[in-house]
Amino acid sequence: MRATIAGILLFTFLLPTLHAAAPVSEIGSAPTYTPSPIPVPVPVMTPPQQSAPPAGDAHYQMQMLEDEVRTLRGMVEELNNEVRQLKARQLEDYMDLDRRVSGLVSGGAPASSSSPQGVDQTSSAVEPVTPAGDETAHYTNAYNQLKAGKTAEATALFKEHIALYPSGAYTANAHYWLGEIYLLQNKLEPARQAFSTIVNSYPAHRKAADATFKLGQVYHMMGDNVKAKAMLEKAAAGNDNAAKLAQRFLQQNF
Fold it and tell me: Is residue 22 included in any domain, yes or no?
């Protein structure tokens, strides 16, 4: 009996001790501890600030651009003047050559008093020259105005000559010089009409070959290369100066 009581007392004494020594992990599965990540501050990259150019620099650049534009305009104007002078010089040289050729056609010497110097006559085998003193004087006046560089006066007089003498000895010549004046002034459509009149209405005239060549040039400047090539090839088929010019133009542009 005494032994039983002793055993009970011993069990009672050891029970709290056993409970205290039991680890918590014995109950259920072992807990896992995951530490929270420590936030690391990420630096924010701020784009570099572009400082606006000073107002003075922008104004200076604008002035530089304006100066360049004025310089370019001046250069263009100078080139235009040179082109006009070259065209006028070319026309003057051609007129001088035409005047000398006219003297040869009329008999190997300068034109006589009945045909004043400067009048590019028509060959009598092609178009008979009628003894119309007023017509000759009128045409000579128009031709001299052109030779003096007075294109406005010459244009008016050549038009007047065509109206006064539609079948005159110098009517084809008047058409031709009108075409030259219009071409000099870059008036392509009137130039085309003037040269076309000679090609179509005066095919046997001594200026027909020159007019054919000029008409080809005008068509080329107008962008109609089909007609231009046809006129130039027609002019190049001859054996005169216009043929050589047409051949050269074809080689350079076609």
Answer: no
What is the per-residue pLDDT across 57-80, written as a single tens digit (0 to 9) for each?
777 677 778 777 877 776 776 666
Check pLDDT > 50 for residue 116. no
Query: Cα–Cα distance between 43 and 105 in angstroms, integer?
Result: 99
For residue 89, what are the CA distances in angstroms to 68, 94, 147, 180, 230?
Answer: 31, 8, 11, 12, 28
Domain encompassing residue 139: 76-102+132-253
Q: Does residue 115 fall inside a structural domain?
A: no
CB half-sphere exposure, 3, CA atoms < 13 A: 0
Asked if the structure places residue 9 within a domain, the reply is no
Tell me how many domains the chain contains: 1
Is 58 within the bounds of a domain? Answer: no
For residue 107, pLDDT beyond 60: no
- DSSP states of 122-160 as a string? PPTTTSPPP--HHHHHHHHHHHHHHHTT-HHHHHHHHHH
87 by Cβ neighbours in 10 Å (0-12 / 13-18 / 19+) ranks as: middle
Which pLDDT belongs to residue 62?
A: 78
Q: Give the domain CATH number at 184.
A: 1.25.40.10
pLDDT in tens, 10-35: 555 555 554 544 444 444 444 555 55
